[in-house]
Sequence to fold (388 residues):
Amino acid sequence: MALNQEITSLTEIKAFKTSWTVKAKIVHTWRNLPTFGGETLDMVLADESGTLIHASIRKQQIQKFFKYIKTGEWKTFENFTLAKAFGKYRATDHTYKMSFMNNTIIKSCPSVSNEWYFNFQNFEDILNDQALNESFLIDVIGQVVNVGEIKIHEIKNKPTKKLEIELRNTIDERLSCTLWERYADTMWNAFENKGDEKLICLIRLAKISTFNSQRSIANAYDMSLLEINPKYPEVEEFVANLPNDDLPLTLLPKESKVGRKKDYYDSFPRKTISELGEATEVGKCKIMCTINTIDTEFPWYYFQCLKCTKTADLIPKKENEIVKKGKKPTFNCRYCNEDTHKVVPRYKLVVGVMDNTGDTKCMLFDNNAFQIIGLSANDLLEGNWSEV
Fold:
């Protein structure tokens, strides 16, 4: 093992050797789960000068390195390969992309800076198709001034959530933003619970899109990081420079749902429960039934990480541990790879249903369960989160 390796800045590393040693902060991580294999654990690293590079760990190496990859921590990285960065959705503008090897060495080191090394782009450049290359992902900050409704689109035979919002900057320029799936849920939850607070949206690694000659931004699959009202100095400065006009956040007018709902339901054949049980092919249908039981053998809720909207697991208290009154329980989010207190309970109801031909069980998640019960899972629990 090499000792006392000379630290090289990220601007100086080249592809002609693998025995580099760099010191960098892990500023963002995500899992890349392509449809046809090739899973990777990816991250953006930043050195003290603010130079960023995209680093990647292959599926076979994730178990080996996973415990060392903690967002926000400074590390030294020794021995890695570099290849030319190319293609769409590039996480940084670095010439190279870093890949770990089996003999890569990751060590903890003292923190060099509390910076998160954002590179926020101004709206004028984003909207100008001559200014920014759409192949590169960007960092964006804006005040949410308009929120649409969550819509469901069929994409690759899968129902996919979509939410349109509008952002403004400190000089009241506007930028359209599309959020998909868990990002749409995160924004909608923030909108519903914002109170009188301004809603500040920060997106790390947003993609620029052009449609009908109009530019907008969107999350780049699971690569992006969406944070609402985060506590960064850059956000505080942004809020301080917003126009002092008390502009309200508005909900964009909803389209009439009656016709759309009828068309949606009419697109699926109606089946009885007995016909459903005899089905031999995967498909979609609708059933008219009565809910007659709630299966209490299964947990009726789960905890959702507010950062990524994935499931978070309650960390049980240690044996003989004295828990201070008012202390929030701690959860672990495997997707974010960190412990957190920022979770919210969501419905996951297993219900028994019946019609005149038979009975079966269905699972209802948060939106559908809320429409039936009329209260959120959080309201029903009344803060008793430890009683799973």
